[in-house]
Design a protein that fits this description.
The chain is an alpha/beta fold and 314 residues long. The protein contains twelve helices and nine strands.
């Protein structure tokens, strides 16, 4: 059984799309998607520096575009399971057949702009809490009035909220845990993003959605979603809800997934899966970062992929 994963914000690197533009039609497609997203995806993926692509309004459509550009080169009919981390869920939803690629790109552009605007309303941030007892970590986050925005498994929880609360958490970390401030614009996946959720919901209701053609896992609770309309509603809700990547990985393990392919810019999710799903039965993992990796990706799909039924989640 083969799972394809679409990464989220923070995984981007300067120039990571440059080699992909050598593929026939890639640059033309990116320019069309740029018009839909309201940002220059060609510039952002090739010439922009790290500071420019850190901007939430630019990063989110760039990441979704990268996943879809690479996915177009793969035999998706043999992919069994799809999942995405945070904004990566938009790419995953398109790969699963729920959204047209154009809709995923347009929604990513809107999502990025509105979340950036919400970040500007008051100073907030995020910090990774690495290690420690999981219950003690969650208790410490709550003690300082923060939110567990990402529960990524593999001993990693991301706390989000006020800068004062994050400073207090860093000064008084849970036992055997490290607190590392993240270079982000604000407290994603918390109630601070409510204005962005409202704005996205006002538009997403008009998007045409189809039921998934392959199993599509949701960050809300790690479950498979069989209804396209429900998935769109979950994508909107996810703006303020925690990312439960730990539950997504638990579902992958329980489903008997034997191969995992991470789309570009790959590495972050592959690392989490490698640390969490280990030992006997650990899946074979391939990271797809450049067109040079396509042969390995197609080979992985050929050896581990199945034949999902069109129009029905398995």
């Amino acid at each position: 059984m083969l799972a394809v994963l679409s990464p989220g914000q923070g995984s981007q690197k300067p120039g990571f799309l440059t080699p992909w533009l050598d593929l026939p039609g890639a640059e033309t497609r990116l320019r069309w998607w740029s018009a839909l997203a309201g940002v220059d995806l060609v510039h952002l993926g090739t010439r922009a520096d790290a500071e420019e692509i850190k901007d939430t309004a630019r990063t989110q459509p760039l990441l979704v575009a990268a996943s879809l550009l690479a996915a177009a080169e793969l035999p998706l009919e043999h992919v069994d399971v799809v999942a995405g981390h945070s904004v990566g869920e938009l790419g995953a939803s398109a790969i699963a057949g729920v959204l047209p690629a154009e809709a995923a790109i347009a929604l990513a552009g809107l999502r990025g702009r509105e979340m950036a605007a919400a970040c500007a309303l008051e100073p907030t941030g995020m910090s990774a809490v690495l290690g420690g007892d999981p219950e003690e970590v969650l208790a410490a986050i709550d003690k300082h009035g923060l939110h567990p925005a990402n529960r990524n498994g593999a001993g990693q929880v991301v706390a989000a909220g006020s800068l004062d609360g994050l400073a207090a958490l860093a000064a008084e970390p849970p036992a055997k845990a490290r607190v590392i401030a993240l270079q982000v614009a604000g407290a994603f996946h918390t109630p601070y993003m409510a204005p962005a959720e409202t704005a996205l919901g006002a538009v997403a209701g008009g998007v045409s959605a189809s039921d998934p053609a392959r199993t599509l896992l949701s960050d809300l609770d790690g479950t498979a979603v069989a209804s396209g309309r429900e998935m769109v509603e979950r994508l909107v809700r996810q703006v303020t809800a925690p990312v439960r990547w730990d539950l997504v990985m638990r579902t992958l393990a329980g489903s008997g997934v034997t191969g995992v392919l991470e789309l570009p810019p790959a590495g972050t999710l592959a690392g989490l899966v490698k640390r969490e799903l280990k030992g006997d039965g650990a899946p074979e993992i391939v990271t797809l970062n450049t067109p040079d990796d396509l042969a390995a990706a197609r080979d992985l799909i050929a050896r581990h992929g199945g034949h999902p039924t069109e129009g029905a989640a398995r």
